[in-house]
Design a protein that fits this description.
Elements (H helix, E strand, L loop, with lengths): L1 E3 L2 E2 L1 H16 L5 H13 L17 E2 L5 E4 L8 H4 L7 H12 L20 E4 L13 H17 L5 E5 L1 H13 L16 E3 L5 E5 L4 H4 L6 H15 L2
Parallel strand pairs: 4-5, 4-6, 6-8
Antiparallel strand pairs: 1-2, 3-5, 7-8
Length: 240
Amino acid sequence: MISEPGRLDPAARLAALATLEIQVVDCHRCPRLVEWREEVAREKRAAFRDEEYWGRPVPGFGDPEARLVVIGLAPAAHGANRTGRMFTGDRSGEWLYRALHRAGFANQALSVGRGDGLDLADAWISAPVRCAPPANKPTAAERANCAPYLAEELLLLDRAEVYLCLGSLAYQAMWSLLRDRGETLEVPRPPFGHGAVSALDGGRHVVASYHPSQQNTFTGRLTEEMFDHVFATVRGFLGA
């Protein structure tokens, strides 16, 4: 059912996203990632030894009517691979949810696990790779195996106006997805850089940011002020 020309009815979108979530969670396409995510879930980190790890692919989540889609890279071994929710339970997530809260996209500034009361408003969080990869480095073949999930997800999130890419790999994945679905794009592709903005048809935008990984936040390459500036740019495109 269509509520507007070319746009899904909210109930149809919700149902389709639920079906996609089932497909993602049940995925076994990449033997190396399956082995690694399950090994981590069995062995656990000492600090979480009493917790039950998720140990499966991690689906996207948020507001199905979102105008902002945040795209990371992949679940952290002891973050989302443990909690079962994107950017939940690790230092990167602490930075992201504080920023989302300050920008008015989240009802709280901290997320430690599913069921902790976190609610996103007008935002959805996803990634091009859904399983925790060894050394945080998925192979090209693994990224290709997982790409259809993000492609389908973004088709369903058809109210999106801004795609915020956290890190160069998310940025590359987004541009590949847009190219593959035949969108009109800038040539050559604009280089990745913190705060870089590219316009798409229909008033949509791709915004780039450094990933809030410890490698960036501990070294000062990414500061909270810089992160807030990116979200201010996003808010500017979306309006109130």
